[in-house]
Amino acid sequence: MTAVCMAVPLAAGVIAGHPSWGMIASLGAFTGFYAHSEPYRYRARLLAGLALALTLAAVAGTLASGSVVASVAVTGAVAAAGTVICIALQTGPPREHFLVLVTLMTSSLPLAPAGAPARGGLMLAGGAVAWLVVMSGWLRDRSAPERNAVATAFERV
After folding, report:
1. CA 58 to CA 45: how far, in whole Å?
2. Which partner for 13 in 21, 64, 116, 131 could form a disulfide, CB atoms 3.0-4.6 Å apart?
3. From first to last of its 157 residues, what are the pLDDT tens digits of the chain?
4. Cβ-Cβ contacts under 8 Å for 1 (sequence gap 6 or more)
5. Cα(34)–Cα(29) distance, rounded to whole angstroms?
6. Residue from 1, 43, 30 nearest 122 by CA
7. Distance CA 48, CA 130 (A)
8. How remote is the C-alpha of 30 from its chain's centroid?
9. Among 7, 124, 110, 122, residue whose Cα is nearest residue 61
10. Which of 12, 91, 102 is closest to 57 using CA atoms?
């Protein structure tokens, strides 16, 4: 499932003749690495929030890309905020790791800070693709996560 989340934005960028756009959108598709067993209503909100957080991390990294000091400060801030938020939401692995990775990648890419809004849009598009892929199980069986959770709890008891 996560392979599809990553491949679709990359393929779309190549087909559009802009592989770099697909690469940036695939950073937003890191959203697909999260929330595979949660109930769908919670999963939908969590994935949307993570896609937005990844986008904000990429925009912040892009804006800080001109200065090493700013890049370090922004990455530290994203790591701290991401850790607190992921712990509060009880997000499973990979938690804040992709937020930090995206910030580091975008702060080290040779991209002009003026293009941050466009890159944010590409990130949101990649996150939307991942959201659709991860939520696609809802079309087949809406209550599967709840049944699996109850079965797992019953086995553990």
Report:
1. 20
2. 21
3. 889 999 999 999 999 999 999 999 999 999 989 877 788 888 899 999 999 999 999 999 999 988 899 999 999 999 999 999 989 988 878 889 999 999 999 988 777 888 889 989 999 999 999 999 999 988 777 777 777 777 777 788 8
4. 32, 36, 133, 134
5. 10
6. 30
7. 10
8. 4
9. 110
10. 102
